[in-house]
Amino acid sequence: MKHHNNYKILLLIALLGLLLLSACDGNNEETAPTVSSEDIEVYIPVISATGEVVPAQWSTLSVAITGIVEEILVDEGGEVEAGQVLLRLEGAEVLEAAVAAAEIELESAQQAYDDLFLYADINKAIARDALVAAQEYLDDAEEEREKKDYDRASPETLDEARANLIIAEDFVTKKEIEYDQVDDRRQDDPIRAEKFAQLAAAKRERNRQQANLNWLLGLPDELEVARADVDLEMAEAQVADAEREWEDIKDDGVDDEDLALVEKRLKNAQSQLDAAKAALDDIELKAPFDGTVSSLRVRENEWVIPGQAVILFADFNSLRVETTDLNEIDMAQLKIGQRVSVTFDALPNLVQDGTLTYIAPKASEGSGVNYTAHIELDEIPQELRWGMTAFVDIEVSD
Fold first, then answer.
1. Domain with 77 in it
2. How far apart are CA 186 and CA 8, in angstroms?
3. Domain boundary among 314, 329, 362
4. Please, how many CA atoms are within 13 Å of residue 389, restricted to the half-sphere of its CB?
5. Res. 329 pLDDT band, cuts 50 70 90
6. How far, in Å, CA of 273 to CA of 268, rounded?
7. Which of 318, 330, 323 is nearest to 373 (CA)?
């Protein structure tokens, strides 16, 4: 017990000594050294997430039509340029023939179109002449129809018909006298037969002139009026058609209906050619952009169908990091343009800087509420590969 009390006394003495030393230090005129702000390490908040290395541009390619793979023109890992053919299907010969036929039809349609304007002046002249002829025909028809409302002939025409009848009757009289002089001859006498034939012809001519005069002296009957009406209607219709044709063609010498027809033919021919070329183009699968063949999933002589993945294609010159577990709380603190530090599981000695360039507007599918963010790297290390795991630290200070 005595040793225990002595220990307490010694402890109290030590404490008092420390207090006295502290008091003495406080009275010392020398000041303690100061610490500058540069010597203080500033803490910057960081949000961490896991990500995956992916190409900024990649595509799973498939063919446009069903067919058999005739030739594969690339190897896995091969670099190609945009538009370069990757594989080709069978059937090029048939499709090339279709293209050739479509080109011939297009040339023919174009020639028909050009011919319309080549003969434009001739077409205008023909249409103009047709209109003039139709108008003349109408004038004649109208004149003839007007005559049906009056006597069949003018006084001058009647006088002419009467004179023709007198002449015909006088000629009959002369022929009768000549025949009477040979009438007593035998019936087979040539002279008698000739005079008889002349007399008969003279009588027929007299009768014709008499009938003509009688007709001219009479009024037109219903049949004549009906015929005149029909002729007039036909003439009017022809003029209407000729006027429409002239109005349609007078400006450019081309009929609108003919032009519309050849334009439709030309358009259809162009569509057929485009379709044939597209079908020919569809048997070839081409690179959509500059990149690398990451994976070939088909072999030659295999059937392939649209939608079937045949080539995995990517641009490995544009690798970036996409986050896989950035939660909604952390996402709310991020802004485009914030700096990022990235490390990789497979490359433990590598630290790569980058920039936050994109934040998805909608949460990703799957469990939990996570958003995808894109990080563009300042430099793309040569060892970096598609699919590597990445760890990102995003600075969130203002």
1. 62-89+283-314
2. 202
3. 314
4. 6
5. very high
6. 9
7. 323
- 379 falls in which pLDDT band (50, 70, 90)? very high
d(CA 255, CA 259): 6
Of 308, 390, 310, nearest to 345 by C-alpha is 390
pLDDT surpassing 90 at residue 363: yes
CA distances from 213 to 89, 167, 216, 223, 225 (A): 92, 13, 5, 19, 19
Query: Is residue 375 packed enough to be buried (19+ CB in 10 Å), middle (13-18) or exposed (0-12)?
Result: buried
Bin 91: left if φ > 0, else alpha if -120 < ψ < 50, else beta: left
CB 292 within 8 A of CB 313: yes
Neighbours of 155 (CB within 10 A): 8
Say which residues have a Cβ less than 8 Å from residue 167's Cβ, sequence separation at least 6: 209
269 DSSP 8-state letter: H
On whether residue 206 sits in a domain, the answer given is no
Number of structural domains, the chain? Answer: 2
State the number of CA atoms in the 13 A half-sphere of 158 facing the CB: 10
**% of the chain beyond a pLDDT of 90:** 55
What are the helix and strand counts (H, E) for the chain? 8, 16
pLDDT at 5: 38
The Cα–Cα gap between 295 and 76 comes to 6
Q: Provide the pLDDT for residue 18.
A: 54
Give me the chain's average pLDDT, please.
85
Do the beta carbons of residue 67 and residue 283 sit within 8 Å? yes
Please report, for the domain that includes residue 372, its CATH number. Answer: 2.40.30.170
Encode pLDDT of 90-140 as tens digits: 999 999 999 999 999 999 999 998 888 777 777 778 878 888 888 888 888
